[in-house]
């Protein structure tokens, strides 16, 4: 993942237009509901199949389209399912509420690309529940929110190794994903690769389950989890998802059994470690009971240092953690006292007389 982060941005549109243009197969569509032209302009909009609830097309709207939001709203009034592609680039729309009735985008090779729209503040596709193919929302400098409150299913897949299935990046510095959007767009079982230069929004009204500081009963923590010499471990018992760093320093922990429900750690800030564990002199095992995914854009991602001496022989924990790190290119993502998991495996046991 790390090597491929920057490549897609130079290649998104040219690559896709080339790769996807050969596929023009709407054979399972009502011929009356195929909009073959794709490019929506003031000339072509008259032939858009307005009355169809399922439209098959590679819809393309850009700055040359010369269409108002009202014209688009009228064209898309009945469209609930779009099979093909939706590309909206370089336009000046504030939101895409003209597509508020759209519920499903069915796509195989492409999907949704909303990029380079200088005025866009939110998508506002408020009825959109399912997306497939690829999902790109990039380089919209005013975009602060996706606003996809109904999104439930994202079965996203990129057929190209250098291009992620999801990229939500380079939008407004204030951009953030809601917890619900983050969970769906980061579902590793359904999405094969992602790039996020984003963050998760702090919940406006923290609840028992969604908190911004560790709390008893909390399941989703948005913020760093800092554990020091004094910490009430009841506060992490129920924690499942951490959107921030796990920082454990100078604690008395001997192992990580206290994180009994923790499944995912997501740290989208590339300057921050996802896991930072230092100076825990009693810590002898780094095995997390349930941790299955770590999202990190940091060069290292997971760092263990100066803990109990025996921890550097715990290569099994090292591999287990590293296997949870996103992407195939995670080889250097996990270090224990500057050792890789392979280095650790080669070390003899502490009492084995090295
Ligand atoms: C659609 O728009 C794109 C980008 O402006 C252009 O390259 C392409 O030729 C257009 N296709 C048609 C059929 O007009
Ligand atoms: C969406 O943009 C239109 C202008 O195109 C504006 O009238 C409308 O209020 C906006 N909707 C929201 C929810 O901001
Ligand atoms: C969105 O869905 C709701 C509930 O099904 C429906 O009442 C509403 O009309 C839809 N919105 C649009 C813009 O179609
Ligand atoms: C741990 O505590 C010691 C002594 O209080 C302090 O010198 C050290 O900086 C602490 N380590 C970390 C990582 O905070
Ligand atoms: C990432 O973390 C750094 C250091 O904590 C902070 O200054 C920066 O604002 C963060 N970036 C984002 C996008 O939140």
UniProtKB/TrEMBL annotation:
Stored PANTHER family: RECEPTOR PROTEIN-TYROSINE KINASE
Name the record gives this protein: Receptor L-domain domain-containing protein
Gene3D superfamilies: Receptor L-domain
Lineage: Eukaryota, Metazoa, Ecdysozoa, Nematoda, Chromadorea
Residues of the signal peptide: 1-22
Receptor L-domain domain boundaries: 51-143, 217-309
Alphabetic keyword roster: Signal
Keyword Mitochondrion among record annotations: no
């Amino acid at each position: 993942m790390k090597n491929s982060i920057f490549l897609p941005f130079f290649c998104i549109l040219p690559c896709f237009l080339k790769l996807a243009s050969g596929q023009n197969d709407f054979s399972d569509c009502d011929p009356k509901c195929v909009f073959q032209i794709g490019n929506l302009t003031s000339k072509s909009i008259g032939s858009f199949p307005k009355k169809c609830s399922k439209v098959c097309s590679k819809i393309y709207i850009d700055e040359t389209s010369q269409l108002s939001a009202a014209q688009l709203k009228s064209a898309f009034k009945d469209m609930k399912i779009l099979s093909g592609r939706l590309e909206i680039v370089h336009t000046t729309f504030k939101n895409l509420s003209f597509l508020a009735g759209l519920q499903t985008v069915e796509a195989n090779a492409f999907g949704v690309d909303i990029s380079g729209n200088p005025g866009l503040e939110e998508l506002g596709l408020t009825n959109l529940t399912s997306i497939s193919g690829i999902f790109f929302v990039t380089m919209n400098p005013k975009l602060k929110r996706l606003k996809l409150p109904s999104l439930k299913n994202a079965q996203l897949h990129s057929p190209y190794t250098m291009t992620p299935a999801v990229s939500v990046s380079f939008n407004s510095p204030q951009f953030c994903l809601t917890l619900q959007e983050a969970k769906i767009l980061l579902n590793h079982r359904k999405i094969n690769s992602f790039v996020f230069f984003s963050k998760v929004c702090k919940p406006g009204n923290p609840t028992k389950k969604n908190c911004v500081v560790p709390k008893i009963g909390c399941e989703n923590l948005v913020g760093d989890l800092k554990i020091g010499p004094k910490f009430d471990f009841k506060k992490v018992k129920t924690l499942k998802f951490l959107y921030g760093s796990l920082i454990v320093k100078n604690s008395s922990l001997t192992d990580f059994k206290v994180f009994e429900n923790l499944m995912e750690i997501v740290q989208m800030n590339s300057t921050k470690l996802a896991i930072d564990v230092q100076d825990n002199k009693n810590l002898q095992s780094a095995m997390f009971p349930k941790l299955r995914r770590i999202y990190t854009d940091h060069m290292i991602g997971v760092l263990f240092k100066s803990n109990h001496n025996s921890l550097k022989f715990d290569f099994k924990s090292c591999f287990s953690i590293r296997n949870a790190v996103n992407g195939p290119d995670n080889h250097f993502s996990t270090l224990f006292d500057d050792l890789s998991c392979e280095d650790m495996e080669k070390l003899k046991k502490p009492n084995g007389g090295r």
